[in-house]
Amino acid sequence: MIGLAGAAVLSPVDLKAMEEEGLSLFSQLSKKEIDEKYWEEIKSNFILADGLRYFNNGSLGTCPDYVVKATNKFRQTLDSFPSKYMWGGWIDNKEEVRKKAAEMFSVSKENIALIHNTTEGMNLIASSMDLKDDDEVLLSNHEHSSARIPWKYWQESKGVKLVDVDLPILPESKEEIVDKFRQAITPKTRVISIVHVTNTNGMILPVKEISEMAHEHNVLVAVDGAQSMGMFKIDLDDLACDFFTSSSHKWLFSPKGMGIFYARREAQTLLKPLIVCRGYHTKTIRRFENYNTRNLPELLGLGAALDYRDLIGQNRIENRVYELKKYFRSQLSNTKKFKFKTPEGDDLSAGIQTVEVIGRTSREVKNKLSKEYQIDCRPMSSHGLNGLRISLAIFTTKADVDYLVKALKKIAG
User: Fold this and answer.
1) Which own/partner pairs from 215-221 qualify as long-range (CB within 8 Å, at least 24 positions apart)?
2) pTM, to two decimals
């Protein structure tokens, strides 16, 4: 059942209508057959501009109307009594959001910190590691700059070596990727820092297998989960990594500037807060989110986004993402005018698919899609991709995919 976390403390603002809307939405969605009309109704929950076909969720997600309204209600409540809600009035509410995030990952809430984004989490990890001259950190050559630069800034000046592991664009198996890291490990390797789903071509890295292999060599594993959290089910205990950081404004559809950070209990002792103020000495994971004054309405809005996700259901969301992937690929796979730059297997890719229009530059095609068809997607030119990164989310309908495919075929000639 959906509900705003700790609604009882929100007495300065009347939330009765908001709660009734949530219950009504729950009733509608829980009783409906899961067909294309269902997903069209899901799309109607989002407030995208008229005529826009949005395939750029990998850059920035959109919030469903419910989350927008909930966050605005929290903002009004804060401004009705600022000192009360900023410093203490919402303690229980914050803990409820932490609990919901932990449940999504199947871990203890004592392993979860509520931060701003993936970049902050990567800086927290990279700044904390007590590495020495000639130690090594392995990164894939598909790491986002926000996952690479923190290591460069905090560790390279100490003589720590950052070693790139080149990944195949179209691996045939997970083991092919694991082997790349296995071969790169040396006695000087201390950390493997990897992306879970690449932002370039949507390739899923086998984090569990890499983590298990790394731990055999006493190597820590840090994961950039910006493109995976919310796209499919993640059990972090099973994934076996030491650290996992992600932005919730992509595939969780939360307010912007919110993120979730995970650290295994034993690994938390290795971390040092990026920002310190009163309470910095606490031994709990909360010391990594101690900003004194912060945007609490956005944090509680993350709780509303997790509620909305629960309305639809984890398995239902994951199944839909893979359904859209197969539907999109099936319409372009039988022509020589297009080439997929994303692995096809479901264990190697999900809701991000990168496709090249043969004979056209990715920037040229992106501009045509935007100007002539009101389609937004991301051109990818690195790694020899020359492709369009297409993000397929739960607000994407098959009619949207049909419209995109028709546009691509016209541009391809």
Assistant:
1) 215/240, 217/185, 217/189, 219/185, 219/189, 219/190, 219/191, 219/192, 220/129, 220/190, 220/191, 220/192, 220/267, 220/270, 221/191, 221/192, 221/193, 221/194
2) 0.93
Question: H or E element: which one contains 93?
Answer: helix 91-105
End-to-end CA distance of the chain: 50
5 or 320, higher pLDDT: 320
The residue behind tokens 């990897």 is 194
Q: Which two tokens stand for residue 81?
A: 């009594």
Spatial contact of 201 and 169, defined as CB atoms under 8 Å apart? yes
Q: Do residues 113 and 140 touch, judged by C-beta distance below 8 A?
A: no
Task: Work out whether strand 338-340 and strand 352-357 pair parallel, antiparallel, or are unpaired.
Answer: antiparallel
* Complete domains list, the chain, with CATH: 99-307 (3.40.640.10), 314-412 (3.90.1150.10)
Tokens 């469903």 belong to 64
| E-assigned strand segments in 213-282 | 220-224, 243-247, 259-263
Q: What are phi and psi of 161, to 5 degrees?
A: -95, 130
Q: How far apart are CA 397 and CA 159, in angstroms?
A: 50
Q: Is residue 15 classed exposed, middle or buried when 0-12, 13-18 and 19+ CB atoms within 10 A define those classes?
A: buried
CA atoms in the 13 A half-sphere facing the CB of 5: 29
What does the pLDDT look like over 307-319, one tens digit per residue?
999 989 999 999 9
Q: Is residue 123 packed enough to be buried (19+ CB in 10 Å), middle (13-18) or exposed (0-12)?
A: buried
CB 86, CB 292: distance < 8 Å: no
The total number of residues written for the chain in this structure: 413
Listed in sequence order, the residues at least 6 apart from 204 whose beta carbon sits closer than 8 Å to its beta carbon are 196, 197, 228, 343, 347, 348, 349, 350
Is residue 214 a contact partner of residue 239, using CB atoms and an 8 Å limit?
Answer: no
The enclosing H or E element of 189 equals strand 189-195
Radius of gyration of the chain (CA): 22
Residue 79: pLDDT over 90: yes
pLDDT in tens, 162-203: 999 999 999 999 999 999 999 999 999 999 999 999 999 999
34-41 long-range Cβ contacts below 8 angstroms, 24+ apart: 34/316, 36/397, 36/398, 39/320, 39/394, 39/396, 39/397, 39/398, 40/397, 40/399
